[in-house]
Amino acid sequence: MSEPLRPDMFDELCPSxxxxxxxxxxWAALILRCLEEGPRRYSELRVPLRRVTxxxxxxxxxxxxxxxxxSRTVYEGLPRRVEYGLTPLGRSMLEPLDAACAWAAEHWxxxxxxxxxxxxxxxxxx
Amino acid sequence: MSEPLRPDMFDELCPSxxxxxxxxxxWAALILRCLEEGPRRYSELRVPLRRVTxxxxxxxxxxxxxxxxxSRTVYEGLPRRVEYGLTPLGRSMLEPLDAACAWAAEHWxxxxxxxxxxxxxxxxxx
DNA sequence: CAGAATCCAGAAGGATACTG
DNA sequence: CAGTATCCTTCTGGATTCTG
Lengths: 126, 126
Known about the structure:
The structure is a homodimer.
Chain A: E1 21-23, H1 28-34, E2 40-41, H2 42-45, H3 54-66, E3 70-75, E4 81-86, H4 88-92, H5 94-118
Antiparallel strand pairs in A: 2-4, 3-4
Chain A binds a DNA duplex through residues 25-27, 41-43, 46, 52-59, 74, 78-82, 125-126.
């Protein structure tokens, strides 16, 4: 149904932490992106998000679940299998997220220039 | 040119801190809203944002200025006068902000219901 | 496999008081 | 008027190690 997530999915794109907006916590928007094409297992998500520790990723996922944006399904068996997927509400949030990303793509240079011009050359928030 | 900002501008609307997205820091989006109809003085902004301490508000404004979203103009004289206004870049960001707000307005109930259903009745992040 | 437990550092936000 | 300066608490995210 959906192809495997590329490990470098966020290697280039990842200045997202420099953007002047955030959806959920630091990793939430990236998770939503990963789920766009269908449900994913925990370990699948960990591939492009390998720089996120398991504790933090679980917390992000729980927060998304709490807000009704993501669903969590456990398939018992050995090995265990847990799938995360977008709820209709979660999918609906891709719309404002896309709007924000479009803005970022369009104004990325202006943003960098502004920080450059301000003095300190745009310290990333990490 | 623009009417005074209502002191209660964010009294009702202020569950904004419960939303699953943020533009800039905690107060940035509210500041952008205040500047929508034209430049405002520091003390004008402090009226609807009276619950923000001066230090924090100044830091928010500086961050917005650094990102080129807001301009700061000083008019010397006694008493001093400092005006903040949206730059074209700042105004352009009202678009994704509006998209996010529209989403929130449309799905606010679902969000609350999801938190309610999750267990703990939606602890506000403050 | 899908996490939980513990410990820790830095950032964000706030209270209060003071100033050019 | 438009901020600064200090001090302090909380929140976030991360490193590391361990488990049903």
